[in-house]
Fold this protein.
Amino acid sequence: MSSLSASCTSPLAKKLCHLFVKCSREACDLLRAEYHTDSRPWASWGDYDRRQIQRQAVGGVRFPFSARHTNAKRAYAEAYSLRKAGMAQALAHAGLPLEGAHHRGADDAWNIAALVAQLVSEGHWPQDPT
């Protein structure tokens, strides 16, 4: 039994779980069909997001991304010999502004893309995602 189905015990919770799985399936299907995310490399800031998306791929929902993942947080820290590299600290280190609100998904994606673009332009982006 998945952790999702184990938490769906009341009638309302069952309806919400069904809706979540349906929306997740539709979103993941769209990502694969429109953006070919299952055949392209991708990145996240740390492994939290990768693990979270994998955990949410439940109820028969296929994981929407390829196995070629790069931990951009690790790549940044290694490129600049930093011990820790939170996104806000990395932006400050790079001389880039923190756009929008920290920890808001779309804003974080924008900021992480700016950091990845800098890593690529400076030749620090790993060639072979793992």
Summary: The mean pLDDT is 89. Helices lie at 3-7, 11-35, 48-56, 72-79, 87-94, 105-121. Residues 11-35 form the longest helix (25 residues). Strands lie at 42-44, 69-71.
